[in-house]
Amino acid sequence: MATATLGGKSIEVNDEGFITNQEDWSKEIALDIAKNLGIEMTDRHWVVVNYMREDYAKTKKSPTVRRITQNTDVNTKELYALFPGGPGKKAANIAGVPKPAGCV
Amino acid sequence: MKKIVILGAGTGGTMMAHHLSKKLNSKEWQITVVDDIQDHYYQPGFLFVPFGNYTLDQIRKPQTSLLPRNVRFLNQATKKIDPENNSIETSSGEKLIYDVLIIATGSRIVPEETPGLTEEDTWRKTAFDFYTADGAAALFPAMNNFKGGNLVVHLAEMPIKCPVAPLEFVFLADYYFKRKGIRDKVNLSFVTPLDGAFTKPTAKKAFGNLMQQRNINVITEFNISEVDGQNKVIKSYDEKEVAFDLLVTVPVNMGSKLIEDCDLGDELFFIDTDPATLQSKIKENIFVLGDATNVGTSKAGSVAHFQSEILTRNILDFIRGKPFSASFDGHANCFIESGNKKGMLIDFNYTQEPVTGSFPLPVIGPLPLLKEARRNHLGKLAFRWIYWNMLLKARSIPFVSAHMKKSGKNIV
Ligand SMILES: Cc1cc2nc3c(=O)[nH]c(=O)nc-3n(C[C@H](O)[C@H](O)[C@H](O)COP(=O)(O)OP(=O)(O)OC[C@H]3O[C@@H](n4cnc5c(N)ncnc54)[C@H](O)[C@@H]3O)c2cc1C
């Protein structure tokens, strides 16, 4: 396990940069992860990130792209514009939830 | 008379009919299987049809020949499940009351989910699936007539049933064109929404290496937004494009339309199911197995087989009012054709990813895991016989237990 300085604290992350203890998450940490991914957080980004956190708390699974677009007003096109090159993974990273399993 | 109703007479439903009819007294329990199919297809055989190795005739049997005699087969579609009243209704309006319901309605491809894919000038003209009997049969002449250009093998979205099937297709295509002597005229690509050739790290690496050796381009994190059949390109949401002359796609997979219509599933119409007991979260007397569940393992015939052994014990416990005694670990065991008359084997469960090592089998000898070998290819071919004669009839395969074994595996 590696650690990274996020939100001014030393936080444990895995080799893909996902925080390993969900309780560590804070808005400040999210902003730093986003910055590292080259993403400037807007209200629309937060719609996605907040939904991911809520859904994860309920289901203990990171929501898929399909689930996000069905349960928020963000459509797939916008989602890709907000989190270029892999919205499921990047939004999960920022939201402090595990990388979507993509199943097996 | 108490009643068990099984929805779906595919792999899982047929197995459950055999298991339960052996275990339950037919004077006390009536078992009814409901499905509108006439022919039962050995679906792993679809992979070989486009290459001319099998015809559809060689991979189907009439469903009535596959069920035990003391089970009633209602050859109709189910149009409604009513958990509150413990009943289902068929397309002709017949109502069946059940004590226990088993849902084994599988998964289906939904090409309409991808804009442009089902356009008349595209679907099964330049863009094909091989996940259905019709699709596999239509792809055979298209492969046969292919003289060169871009062949793109693509999967739209996870999960799909048999997630190794598109890999097998691209390996077999490489071998097919080599044998025809035109491999140098064919540009082979594998396009996936995943970040590698497979989901789990060790297998991802092994399959990735094989792709490289075979000169197959792997295009990852490609989330399809549209098939543009006129210009023969597939487009992604982040505006990447891949050109094709022949597109072989695994469209979005979803649970049965029935589950959608009755609002009993998740966003892909798979049913929320307890991963260990296989009891549904819908109601305590509804159980699910096979591709219809949302449990975190592969959607595969081998999984349905292992689940059927577990589920039989749990249903017997349930009807006797005992606590569940069996627990499913997610065990999956899949042969992967890799061309050249060779194959690979992966064996894994909910928590153990596929790794290298060997899979112990007395008599035949151990099968190498995650490594190419002729013996694995023979295993895959033998599977058709095993499917009809052992798996469907609920005869367990000697030495292969429902729970995954760690012995022989090089666990990383
Ligand atoms: C190309 C391909 C290759 C594969 N290769 C392998 C392999 O190598 N190894 C492996 O283990 N697995 C493989 N599989 C996967 C395997 O075939 C499936 O996982 C397995 O058949 C699932 O069984 P099931 O009972 O859940 O669903 P199915 O066998 O698909 O059966 C579902 C049944 O439900 C019925 N049904 C659906 N809705 C209704 C309704 N409303 N009313 C009545 N009936 C309904 C359908 O008609 C169908 O008969 C492959 C699949 C494909 C497509």
Characterize the structure shown.
The complex is a heterodimer of chains A (104) and B (412). With 104 residues, chain A is mostly helical. Chain A has one domain (2-95). Helix content of chain A is 48%, strand content 10%. In chain A, helix 2 (43-59) crosses helix 5. The longest helix of chain A is centred in the middle third of the chain and has 17 residues, at 43-59. Chain A is globular. Chain B has 412 residues and is of the alpha/beta class. Chain B is built from 7 helices and 24 strands. Chain B has a 5-stranded parallel β-sheet, with helices on one face. In chain B, a hairpin with a 4-residue loop joins strand 15 (224-228) and strand 16. Chain B starts with a strand and ends in a 21-residue tail after the last helix. The chains are: A mainly alpha (104), B alpha/beta (412). Chain A binds chain B through residues 64-67, 70, 76-77, 79-80, 84-86, 89, 101-104, and chain B through 157-159, 163, 193-195, 199-200, 221, 223, 225, 237-238, 266-268, 296-298, 332, 348. The structure holds flavin-adenine dinucleotide. Residues 7-13, 34-37, 43-44, 46-47, 77-78, 104-106, 130-131, 161-162, 165, 256, 258, 290-292, 299-302, 304, 334-335 of chain B line the site of flavin-adenine dinucleotide (FAD). The site of flavin-adenine dinucleotide has 37 residues of chain B, from helix 1, helix 6 and strand 21.
